[in-house]
Specification:
Helix content is 24%, strand content 38%. The protein is an alpha/beta fold.
Length: 441
């Protein structure tokens, strides 16, 4: 008898099928996956007593609706490819549909000659084994989703590797498009960026649905910035609102490096995003910015950690949420400063704008400081749109819904304005507008 979807037995069968499909993959890769899968099975689902899951809804985490062997049928590849071209100014692009590569645009010959590596994860396993052994899933998962990081490691089949050698500066961004297509599909986006010293690179990642079918997304992004490197990363999450999403991010900043992370979060019925910024070298700077627009039934759960282990370094977090109807957001952030990280300058801000009295915003900012010469602060605000703001606009002929929309645009512009690629910022604005109006882009 066929096992029920999402049960341990069905997941075991799906995993064995996944391992069997790896064909010529090296044995170390299969062994890595087997270890991760056993770790996933042994780990308990989050409990009510878990501080890292405070305020979060823990129901539905048994993945009972998921199909770990999903295979897209009647895939309209050309349509998805057409939608996977947000700009003509790019250094390379890959697009994936239910983990399968549907678009492959290599880096230019000039960049390849300089040593840039831009390839899919499946290619990297065969051709860049040493890089993967050194960097792939090497960062600890500290914010509560270790079980789902193990699930990702067990089932990940595709993603991107971007390696930029010492001193190489890349002007146009790279793009990685990830599509969930089939009903109850399980997708595992993976992005690994390694920027060697004094290099510069920009990568854009999108997570999108091609229909209104329910799905699971369990993604991981790791960014490594060497001495003096500059890494700019933007994620646009626009899955449909039947999706369960996990996104685990980490970035490591070496001496005098800079890492910028932007997130635009609009989709998923439930979405758990964890981001750990690690300042490893003096003079480093990390900026992490996120905006989320939620409506009825959505829960967006955001957990952040800024770890300072080097002196004379800075970090800044700005998370903004606008909540419609009966939606819910959670922000939990911690700034942690080691004893050796003197003259740290770190900030953490969460701002919530309630568009409905039934919406719920939770904020848990925190500090853990062991050094005595630092400048650290955190703040959280939650407010409603003021009646006089709506009255002012309605008096000028602007309907209430349109007035709310304009106010939210202004609220988010502090983050949208920091997205360097203007076409990408405009695409994000269109997604926000479409969500307000119940339209598709």
């Amino acid at each position: 008898m066929e096992a029920e979807p999402g049960t341990d037995e069905s997941i075991r069968c799906a995993f064995q099928s996944h391992i069997d499909s790896l064909n010529n993959a090296p044995e170390w890769w299969k062994a890595f996956k087997r270890d991760a899968f056993e770790s996933y099975l042994k780990a308990p689902v989050p409990q009510k007593s878990d501080e890292n899951w405070r305020f979060a809804n823990r129901k539905g985490l048994d993945l009972s609706h998921c199909d770990f062997n999903s295979d897209p049928n009647d895939l309209d590849t050309q349509s998805l490819i057409d939608k996977s071209r947000l700009t003509t100014s790019q250094s390379g692009a890959f697009a994936f549909a239910d983990n399968q590569t549907i678009l492959s645009e290599s880096a230019s010959a000039a960049l390849l000659e300089k040593g840039v590596i831009w390839c899919t994860l499946s290619e990297a396993i065969m051709n860049h084994e040493d890089l993967l052994k050194d960097y792939f899933m090497k960062q600890a998962v500290d914010l509560g989703s270790k079980k789902y990081a193990d699930l990702h490691s067990a089932f990940v089949a595709n993603g991107v590797l971007l390696y930029v050698p010492k001193g190489v500066e890349v002007d146009a961004p790279f793009y990685a498009y990830n599509w969930a297509v089939s009903k109850e599909a399980s997708v595992f986006p993976h992005t690994l960026v390694i920027a060697e010293e004094h290099s510069r690179v920009h990568l854009v990642e999108t997570h999108l649905s091609s229909s209104d079918q329910p799905s699971l997304s369990c993604g991981v992004t790791h960014l490594f910035a060497g001495v003096g490197a500059n890494v700019d990363y933007t994620l646009i999450q626009g899955y449909n609102e039947e999706t369960l999403g996990f996104q685990i991010n980490s970035n490591i900043a070496g001496k005098d490096s800079q890492v910028d992370m932007n997130s635009v979060v609009l989709g998923c019925k439930r979405y758990r995003a964890e981001t750990h910024g690690q300042i490893k070298g003096p003079g480093a700077h990390i900026d992490m910015r996120s905006l989320a627009l939620t409506d009825a039934g959505q829960e967006i759960d955001q957990r952040t950690l800024q770890t300072h282990s080097a002196p004379h370094a800075t970090s800044n977090i700005l998370f903004k949420n606008a909540l419609k109807e009966q939606s819910k957001t959670i922000f939990s952030g911690l700034i942690k400063v080691d004893e050796s990280a003197q003259q740290t300058d770190a900030y953490q801000t969460n701002r919530n704008l309630l568009l409905d009295s039934n919406a719920e915003a939770n904020s848990l900012p925190g500090l853990e400081i062991e050094a005595n010469d630092v400048k650290c602060s955190h703040g959280a605000t939650t407010s409603e749109i003021q009646d006089d703001e709506i009255f002012y606009m309605r008096a000028r002929g602007i309907p209430k819904d349109a007035a709310q929309e304009l106010i939210v645009y202004g609220f988010f512009e502090e983050i949208l304005g920091r997205i360097e690629d203007e076409s990408l910022a405009n695409y994000s604005r269109k997604l926000i507008q479409a969500k307000f109006r119940g339209e598709s882009v």
